[in-house]
Design brief:
By secondary structure, the chain is α/β, with parallel strands linked by helices. Helices cover 39% and strands 18% of the residues. The protein contains 16 helices and 13 strands. The longest helix is centred in the last third of the chain and has 16 residues. It is elongated, with a radius of gyration of 24 Å. The termini are far apart. Bound molecules: adenosine-5'-triphosphate (ATP) and magnesium ion. Magnesium ion (MG) binds next to α6.
Length: 406
């Protein structure tokens, strides 16, 4: 049980206690350690069970509930106290927080509110290793500066490489709703898609969400795009953020492959991400788009999350040099992936990820380094010195130098 959060609840009302219990039962990262129907007995229960979280419902008797917060706080300071109430009265919220509650949750309890509270308390990943330090999960959105630059190749292969580490649990969300092909890269015929998740969003719990994902032999899970194309997106930005909040509770890594339309849904994905990997190649249309997209993301306060990744380094002699590219985009290049057409195309055509298809290839090595960089911020260069392992220098000049001589 080291990877779950242990919780004890007190609520004299059987009805609300049971509905909270049902909700918690669907969360496999939370273990209901003890329940209590009397405020008077809860402190004893806490001393015996020493849970990570005490959930105190205030509605049966606010005074007793508030006093209990103080008592539990003194008894077991390491226990996070969450309170639950139908009341939204400011004075009650203030008193609960002053007494030592970490979070004030509105009743009836909603799964996403609860998960968001766990996330804030950095408890959503339980005691799991391998994720973002101090928090449960790392969310990376992969965006492209143009079509076909290698976003899906990167998202899938990064996910499969991360999944090699047994401490990691990895899911890919294919948010390229029209033309997404993540299932092809993994040779998966999924039973469910993001459409099913959206259709059941109001009764979504963990077991349902996990059933909607298909696991690949590498260990990575996939939430695929809908089967049918539609005029309307199957899921709203709010719903997507809810799904991501739930997935963050069980996965150490979420990798989101978005469309190239920078739609509200794509933006919502970036908003909930820790990192946005912007994939570009070294050609003028791509580099010009990087500048344009960066301006767009800056206006949405997302630019600080963006890391530029140059794919297919060494593609053609006619490519713009990396230094000139840096001049153009005015940002550091976070990482480079070499051009490795044979490995990539073989991997995609066989539906077998690079780590299995071509474990020693240049592209695989570069993506392994990228995974390391994402997880540990380790910018060490590769011993083999292959392309992609060396971070670029800081940019020196502005946009129009690209039009000057090479
Ligand atoms: N580093 C690389 N070396 C050689 N070929 C690559 C590399 N990365 C990607 N490719 C190839 O580029 C093509 C496009 O890749 P991919 O589908 O991943 O791009 P994308 O950005 O997801 O495209 P789309 O805009 O259609 O979503 C594929 O055929 C893939 O094999
Ligand atoms: Mg793609």
């Amino acid at each position: 049980m080291s990877s779950v959060v242990r919780l004890a609840i007190v609520d004299p009302s059987d009805g609300t206690r049971n509905s909270v219990k049902n909700l918690l039962l669907g969360i496999d990262s939370v273990w209901l350690e003890a329940e209590c129907s009397r405020y008077e007995f809860f402190a004893d229960l806490i001393s015996q069970t020493k849970p990570d979280i005490a959930l105190i419902s205030l509605d049966a008797d606010q005074a007793k509930g508030l006093a209990l917060i103080v008592q539990i706080n003194q008894l077991l300071p390491s226990c996070h106290i969450l309170v639950l109430s139908r009341s939204t009265e400011g004075s009650l919220i203030l008193q609960a927080i002053r007494n030592g509650a970490k979070e004030f949750l509105n009743a009836p309890l909603r799964l996403d509110d609860f998960m968001a509270a766990l996330d804030r308390l950095q408890l959503s990943g339980g005691g799991r290793k391998g994720g973002k330090s101090g928090s449960g999960s790392k969310v990376v959105t992969v965006v492209g500066a143009s079509g076909g630059v290698g976003c899906t190749s990167l998202a899938i292969n990064l996910a499969c490489i991360e999944a090699q580490n047994k401490d990691n649990s990895v899911a890919v969300i294919d948010l390229d709703l029209g033309l997404g092909d993540a299932d092809v890269w993994l040779d998966i015929i999924p039973d469910y898609t993001i459409q099913d998740v959206a259709d059941n969003i109001t009764r979504l719990d963990y077991s349902l969400l996990k059933r909607s994902l298909t696991q690949h032999a590498s260990g990575a899970f996939l939430l695929p795009r809908p089967v049918q194309m539609d005029d309307h997106p199957p899921i709203t930005p709010d719903q997507l953020q809810r799904v991501v909040a739930l997935l963050k509770a069980t996965f150490t890594h979420l990798i989101i492959d978005v469309s190239k339309s920078f739609s509200p849904l794509d933006i919502a994905a970036m908003q909930v991400s820790d990192m946005v990997l912007m994939v570009t190649q070294l050609d003028l249309p791509c580099l010009r788009n990087v500048v344009r997209v960066m301006q767009f993301l800056e206006e949405r306060e997302l630019a600080s999350k963006v890391k530029v990744l140059v794919n297919r380094i060494g593609l053609e002699d006619s490519q713009i040099s990396l230094n000139k590219a840096l001049d153009t985009i005015g940002r550091e290049v976070f990482w480079q992936i070499p051009n490795d057409y044979a490995s990539m195309i073989e991997s995609r055509n066989n539906g077998v990820p690079l780590i299995e298809q071509a474990p020693k290839s240049k592209a695989t090595k570069a993506i392994e380094h990228l995974a390391n960089l994402i997880d540990h911020g380790d910018h060490t260069t590769s011993s083999s010195g292959e392309a992609g392992a060396v971070p670029a220098e800081k940019p020196k000049r502005g946009l129009f130098s690209i039009f000057g001589k090479k």
